[in-house]
Amino acid sequence: MLSPSARFSALAFLAIVVPATIVAVLGYVSIRQWEASSELLYREQARDMAAMAAEKVEMTLRRSEDAFLDRVQAALRSDAPPQRAVDDVLAGSPLIRRLYLIGAKGELLYPRAWKDGDQAVFGPLLSETAVRRLARDGKREVIANNQVCLALLTGRSGEPVVAAFVRDPDTLRREILEATLGTLESSTIIAVLDHEGRTIYSRAPIGDAPRLLSVGFRERLPDWRLAVYQTPAGSPRQAVRRQVMLFTAALGVLVAVIVAGIVMTWRLMRRETEMARLKSDFVANVSHDLKTPLSVIRMFGETLEMGRVTDEGRRQEYYRVITREGERLSRLIDNVLDFSRIEGGRQTYDMAPTPVEPLIRSTLEAFAYPLAQQGFKVEVSVAPDLPDVTMDADAVGQALANLIDNAIKYSADDRSLTLDARVADGRLVVAVSDRGLGIAPEEQAKIFEKFYRVGRSDTQGRRGSGVGLALVRHVAEAHGGDVTVESKPGAGSRFALRLPLGGA
Ligand code: ADP
Q1: Which residues contact 89 (CB under 8 A, 6 or more apart)?
Q2: Residue 492 CA: which ligand 1 atom is closest?
Q3: Of 469, 493, 494, which is best to mutate to test ligand 1, by the most ligand atoms within 8 angstroms of its C-beta?
Q4: Exposure letters 353-362 (e unless 16+ CB within 10 A, then b)
Q5: Which end of the chain has fewer CB atoms within 10 angstroms, the N or the C?
């Protein structure tokens, strides 16, 4: 059978470790899944964006080239000499670096002569067959790795004319690529690669950023690709790492809260168990305390009733014992009732200016018999000019009675009781000192707790319920004061009740 604390530890283990592990595993699995799906989504978005960007480049390029070809076509049909008119069109089209116009039979119509060996490149492309092919396949073609573009136009009298032109790479980069891709909103790097994979344009330095994907252009830039690179900041991995950190922190907080909760529950449980034990001790102690004076009263009462005591002096003595034990019973019951009122928050105090010395003397008076009987040496020193102090005289009297009762109870061979009252630091200090058993330093704070009794063999035999000092402290605090103890085991104790002169 496990002890309660071992059971509690096993339970706590089950309550913390098992749920925390489940949460951690579930969290890990869902974060991994989330990472995979966000990576996929990220790629899809990047692909869509790349396709859209490529389409945009293609469109812009087509629009400028169409406009250029329209102007060349218009020049061919105009009345002006074609050489001059086409020269003008070329001058206004920075995107086109070079243009050749060839007739249906392969003859050069514009310019008058081939430049820098262009004939070697263009010549074979611009034959009769080329014209036929263009006429058949859609009048446009880009060949020789985007180097040369061909288009079919018509001359003044309707004859086919092939226009072959070469783009200016700088203008292409600046006015087409930069103008369309530079304005795109994206956390990735977009680049345009030529047919050999060389970077023609990139929106930001690529460095060693990993390539996410690339898409091809269509007919205007065949063999060229638009590539998307991942920047570290835009990566979903970064977001996942942040999420993992957040999750770990949340898990840490969760475990800390559970641990704190369990520690608090454990402490509460221990307190409750201790309190239950103290309460049951209290009931046993109070019953015992009530029984002793009652049996004394009964015994003396019966003896008197039987009329066997003839000596008047003895009879008086018996009456005194009955009265004294009765008073002790009243004190005990008052203590228990007041304590229960305090616990229930129902205790009220009647404050009134009270002369201190008469209160001290009348309280002490109630103990005259036990003090005398046990041979106590009693000293009372009250400062002569004590002012009246605002207080509940009954409550303070009762607190004082508890201190005197304790001094008597916890005295051994050296029986001495000293009461002194004076004003110190603007407060009334009433101290009760004995030369009895004393209290160990580690017990001195605890003795003011309710039900607490020092469990030593030398005090265990003495009557008591453990609520006396709790009551004294409560009365002191209700008056805005406090109670202190100075004590040395074997040398005695001094309890001081300190109350403000004007009341609470
Ligand atoms: P009770 O006297 O009914 O046990 P108290 O609350 O009055 O309860 O006191 C709590 C404990 O403090 C006592 O059990 C006792 O051990 C210790 N104590 C109180 N007064 C004295 C004293 N004058 N000398 C030594 N021990 C004392």
Answers
A1: 68, 71, 72, 75
A2: 24
A3: 469
A4: ebebeebbee
A5: N
What is the maximum alpha-carbon separation in the chain?
167
Please give the distance, rounded to the nearest whole angstrom, from the Cα atom of residue 406 to the centre of ligand 1: 6
Residue nearest to atom 16 of ligand 1 (CA): 454
Q: Is 96 exposed, middle or buried (0-12, 13-18, 19+ CB in 10 A)?
A: buried
Strands laid side by side in the 427-434 sheet: 377-382, 416-424, 427-434, 492-500, 482-488
Instruction: Compute the distance from residue 320 Cα to the ligand 1 centre, in Å.
Output: 27
State how far the Cα of 458 lies from the Cα of 413, in Å rounded to an integer.
Answer: 13
Cα separation, 355 vs 389, whole angstroms: 6
Q: Which two tokens stand for residue 39?
A: 């990576």
Each residue's pLDDT expressed in tens, for the chain with a length of 504 residues: 566 667 877 887 787 778 778 877 887 788 788 878 888 888 898 899 999 999 999 999 999 999 999 999 998 888 777 788 888 899 999 999 889 888 877 788 888 888 877 777 777 776 667 777 777 776 666 665 667 788 888 888 888 888 888 889 899 999 999 999 988 877 788 999 988 889 999 988 888 888 889 999 988 888 889 999 988 776 666 777 787 788 878 878 887 888 888 889 889 998 898 888 888 888 888 888 889 889 999 999 999 999 888 899 999 989 988 998 898 899 889 888 988 898 888 889 999 999 999 999 999 998 988 899 899 999 999 999 899 999 999 999 999 999 999 999 999 899 999 999 999 999 999 999 999 999 999 999 999 998 888 875 555 567 788 889 999 999 999 999 999 999 999 999 999 999 998 766
Q: 416-424 and 377-382 as β-strands: parallel, antiparallel, unpaired?
A: parallel
Please state the separation of Cα 374 from the chain's center in Å. Answer: 64
**In testing the pocket of ligand 1, which one of 335, 406, 439, 462 has its CB within 8 Å of the most ligand atoms?**
406
> How far is Cα 418 from Cα 378, in angstroms, rounded to an integer?
6
Judge contact between 220 and 142, C-beta under 8 A. yes
Helix (H, G, I), strand (E, B) or coil at 236: helix
Who lines ligand 1 at CB under 6 A? Answer: 402, 406-407, 410, 434, 436-439, 447, 452-454, 459, 464-470, 493
